[in-house]
Amino acid sequence: MLEKIFKLRENNTTVRTELIAGLTTFMTMVYILALNPTILSASGMDAGSVLTATAVASAIACFCMAAFSNKPFALSAGLGLNAYFAYTICGTMGYSWQAALTAVLIEGIIFIILSLTNIREAIFNAIPGPLKVAVSVGIGMFITFIGLQNAHVIVNNDSTLVGLFSFKSALADGTFSSEGITILLMLIGTILIFYLLKKNVKGYMLWGILVTWLLGIICQLCGLYKPNPDAGFYSVLPTAIVSAPASMAPTMFKFDFAFIAEHPMDFFVMMFSFLFVDVFDTLGTVIGCASKSGMLDENGKLPGIKGVLLADAVGTVVGACCGTSTITTFVESSSGIAEGGRTGLTSVTTGVLFLLALFLSPLFLTVPSFATAPALIVVGFLMMQQVSKIDWSDLVDAIPCFICITMMAFAYSISEGISFGVISWVILHLLCKKTDETSVLMYVLAVIFVIKYFLI
């Protein structure tokens, strides 16, 4: 039955491979169930309700991905978008979380319309081939940076913005037993995953996560690792396995439509900001993951892209109704794809695990970031391998690709990388009179991006 539904043989995969891929994807993105409630609670939302809403909306969105496209992408509440929701709209701007949730709902509805009218598909197809490769490479750099940050290898530094963790300082100030040991475990986990990858071990990424977590448990039991919750280092020992999910009632359908009439311009700005980042984060993630896994056809197009984008849009609407910020396609999907996931069965597996997490949240939320960070770093390595597909001797194409790659990591945003890549591509091709390589839609996108930087 699964063969008929998901066309496994046609996609050169098996049930076992898809299940492992779905589990791997879930393990690398389960942190969102702990992080999203923490962020959104800063806006005044009930943390327990947000956790349940995030899990339910993520599961439904994953099921939609499988039903609409049969692609292995997983979805959940987007990082960055939830921070904008809590800290900018509800913090700096001072508006209620109900108003922000309304903006997410309207953005999702517009997103559905754009998906059904082929506008988003046209944007995807309009992006030139070299720039699509650059997006994939940029995501590789970006996700590596995320992994290094999550593991505290890369830390804040007042003089250089970012810096390398210092073992010498950790030994001197007594933080080695909490922070230092986790970095060593992360390094061991990274080496292990690379070794298993080299040996072609099935499920290498999942095994790496589980073994690193187990080593952390052993270190805590032996006293080598000492949790320090105040510094963000928690126990890796599950205190319980089963728990009842919190009610979504405090946040479900809590919209403030009156705000639209009272503050139309403010509402438009916040809604458009959600829409813009959602559209181009999704496109970037899909381009990167699909390019790495060979899903794009000979023309650089992704068969079934409309279903992928529609699932993302529906997920956002469902998420708003449940009571959480924008649901979007996760770049961590690449970890499952790296494990061989090629069909919607991967997405379904991830969705089912999100639902299980409602009842097994004490277990899943105990998976430490130092255990999942190695997987992100290895995925970054795999995605950056495509850099060889860019013709670096053709400077008119190569320079925008370089800008796209670097800005995606340094601006800490997939959408910003795409913006700078598109703008620089159009400018250089105009100056060098190579306009035949650029579609009309690329010029339109470049103008929109420039306007965005000056007006929003």
UniProtKB/TrEMBL annotation:
Main subcellular location: membrane
Compartment(s) of residence: Cell membrane
One GO term describing the cellular component: plasma membrane
Domain of life: Bacteria
Gene Ontology MF term list: purine nucleobase transmembrane transporter activity
Keywords: Cell membrane, Membrane, Transmembrane, Transmembrane helix, Transport
Membrane disposition: Multi-pass membrane protein
Listed transmembrane segments: 20-42, 48-68, 75-95, 101-119, 131-155, 175-197, 204-226, 267-288, 308-331, 343-364, 399-428, 440-455
UniProt record similarity statement: Belongs to the nucleobase:cation symporter-2 (NCS2) (TC 2.A.40) family. Azg-like subfamily.
Protein name: NCS2 family permease
Originating organism: Grylomicrobium aquisgranensis
